[in-house]
Amino acid sequence: MSQITEQIHSSEIGDILENSLHGKRPTIDDCIMLLESDDVFLMGLVAGKLTQNQFGKKVSFVNNIILNYTNVCITDCKFCAFYRPPGDNEAYTLTLDQIEARVKTAWDLFKIRQVLIQGGHNPNLGIEYYEDAFRMIRTKFPKVGVHGLSASEIDMIARVEKSSTKETISRLKDSGLQSVPGAGSEILVDPVKKIISPKKISSDEWLRIMEEAHLLGLPASATMMYGHVESVQDIAEHFYKIAALQEKTKGFMAFIPWSFEPNNTLLQKESTVNFGAGGMQLLKMIAISRLVYDGLIPHIQSSWLTNGVGMAQLALQYGADDFGGTLIGEEVVSCTGARSTELTSQRIIDSIRQIGYQVEERDNFYNTVCMH
Questions:
Q1: What is the domain extent for residue 28?
Q2: In this structure, what are the phi and psi dihedrals at residue 328, rounded to the nearest 5 degrees?
Q3: Which of 151, 231, 293, 362 is the most buried (most CB within 10 A)?
Q4: Could you give the count of Cα atoms lying within 13 Å of 238 in the half-sphere of its Cβ?
Q5: Residues 81-119: b if buried by 16+ CB within 10 A, e if exposed
């Protein structure tokens, strides 16, 4: 610890890190200083210490699949290579039988504990489609948690039904939805959203829908997609909008910063963003996530999906405590051609053990299923 203290005292961000070690969270101005600093190793030392104080040398993961139930979407986000417009010859929507077959195969082969259900904003799907799917999964596979639908998908369903988002969430919960992923937030600053996803819900609408979900008893993840057109101030604003909601509701279980992958997207075709943000930026974002959310949002995910397993191992030493999921069957990131997005539980277990950590398999709610 004395070695850390010495290095802290000679750093421009030393006071901020010192405060973090004593339980005082960074302010928004501190967060901007951290984002502008190149002292990533020192941030990681402190964030790693905070993480070990809470979790010891233990890392969790969930055995899951992603179920991309439809790629039909009318939102046309410039960062997405997955969606197809209605009527496109590559458009698809899974039937209830196809959903059941996929979940059954994953349960039989891998004993998954979660199905992460996400798709496009498909104007042809009413709420019964989702209710039937969730009810079927919870009835036939009671050990498999239903973690599904971004705030913007919930908004789409409400619009199709000409109903409120609150009523929509309530019905989805009654049919078996158990927790909500953080997708659709990107960066919670509207001028950024106007560039990358102009047809998607606003920042305030995302926060409102998440608050409704929390108050109706659905916990959630929060995410941030960085590395496109946002500024340092935009990132800091995103961090603190999430923090303000969490102080109010305590509904977020985890935070996941992930880097934008430009391949095959409109943002790349228009030469707005040509390259991903890279590994050092990931480690900085993981460390700052822990510093900002320490004592507020318990879990920080390693974000292997867009950065790969090797970077995830480093992220676990820079403030992350959760590896994320196995994600067999993922189709959104794989459409960018970034890398293979198939990852088995054994590969995760081996990756965590390689860096000297214990491995905890968890469920939807971060409860222990078993130790490996």
A1: 2-371
A2: -85, 130
A3: 151
A4: 31
A5: bbbeeeeeeebebbeeeebbebbeebbeebebbbbbbbb
User: Scanning the structure block, which residue is given the tokens 């596979």?
Assistant: 141
pLDDT at 329: 55
Whether 168 contacts 157, CB under 8 Å: yes
DSSP 179: B
pLDDT at 1 over 60: no
How many structural domains is the chain composed of?
1
Q: How is residue 335 annotated by DSSP?
A: G
Assigned token pair, 101: 């077959």
CA triple 309-310-312, angle to 5 deg: 60
What is the model's pLDDT at position 333? 43
pLDDT of the residue at 332: 42
Instruction: Return the pLDDT at 341.
Output: 54
Q: How far apart are CA 326 and CA 314, in angstroms?
A: 18
d(CA 11, CA 81): 41
CATH number, position 81: 3.20.20.70
By CB neighbour count within 10 A (0-12 exposed, 13-18 middle, 19+ buried), where does 52 fall?
middle
Q: How much is the pLDDT for 8? A: 80
How many percent of the chain have pLDDT more than 90?
A: 72
**Between residues 353 and 5, the one the model is more confident about:** 353
* Dihedral sign for Cα atoms in the order 326, 328, 331, 335: positive
pLDDT value of position 249: 98
Helices and strands, counts by H and E, the chain: 16, 10
Q: How far is CA 330 from CA 154, 230, 245, in A?
A: 20, 26, 29
Dihedral pair phi/psi, residue 2, rounded to 5°: -65, -35
Dihedral angle sign, alpha carbons of residues 95, 99, 101, 102: positive
Residue 336's pLDDT is what? 42
Report the interhelical angle of 40-55 vs 2-9 (nearest 10°).
Answer: 140
User: What confidence tens digit (pLDDT) does each residue in 146-185 have?
Assistant: 999 999 999 999 999 999 999 999 999 999 999 999 998 9
Token duo for residue 262:
């430009």
**Cα distances (angstroms) measured from residue 156 to each of 71, 74, 91, 184, 199:** 14, 10, 18, 12, 11
